[in-house]
Amino acid sequence: MADEKIIYVVVAETVQHPLTRVIGGGPLVRLDTTRDIVQIPGRLAAQACHAVSRMRYSELAREVEKTTIKALTSRKKRVPMIVPFQPITTIILSCRDSFELEHCYNLLRDKAGVLAYKFNDTNPPVYGEGEVTTAFATVPVDRQEVVGYLDYLPLWTPKA
C-alpha cells in the first residue's frame, strides 16, 4: 500500500558505555573508562521490542491525555473509549555503534522532523552502572519520511 505507515527501529550492534556529552549538549564522547560492548542477538531483539513498546506506550499516553482534555472541556464530560490495538509493519535496522545510533536519531528528529523514542537499558552485569541507549523506534511514518536518514542502514539480522 502506498499510504501504509511503518515503524522503524534502529538497534546498535555495539554500544559504548559510559559516554558523556561535550558541554552545551554537543556530540557523545568517550571517557577513559568507556567500554565497547557487543550486543548478542537475543539482546538486540529484546532492545528492538523495548523501543517499540516505549514508543507505543508514549503515543497512547499522549492520545489519552489529548482526548481526555478534549472531553473534559466539552459539554459532554465523557471520556471516549481507547481505540483498539492496530498492527503496524515494523522494520528493524542495525547500526554499528552508539555514535551512529545517536547520529541517526538526531538526523530524524532535527532534519526530518520525525518523532522517535529512545530505549535506555539498565543491566549492570552487562553494561555496568547507569543507562545505555541501545535502540530507538519511530512513530509510524511513511517510507519516504526516512529516505536519506535511515535507508542506508542494513536490515538487522542475527549473527551467531
Task: Write a structural description.
The chain is globular, with a radius of gyration of 18 Å. The model has no long low-confidence stretch (mean pLDDT 92). The strands form two sheets. The protein has a four-stranded mixed β-sheet, sandwiched between helices. It has a two-stranded antiparallel ribbon with strand order 2-3. It has 160 residues and is of the alpha+beta class. The chain has one domain: 3-Layer(aba) Sandwich (Bit1). The protein contains three helices and six strands. Helix content is 32%, strand content 29%. It starts with 5 loop residues before the first strand and ends in a 22-residue tail after the last strand.
Rg calculated over all Cα atoms: 18 Å
Largest sheet: 4 strands, mixed
Give the % helix.
25-40%
Class derived from helix and strand content: alpha+beta
| CATH fold field value | Bit1
Q: What is the terminal separation in angstroms?
A: 34 Å
Q: What count of domains describes the coordinates? A: 1
Mean pLDDT: 92
| CATH-defined architecture | 3-Layer(aba) Sandwich
Identify low-pLDDT runs.
none
**CATH hierarchy, class:** Alpha Beta
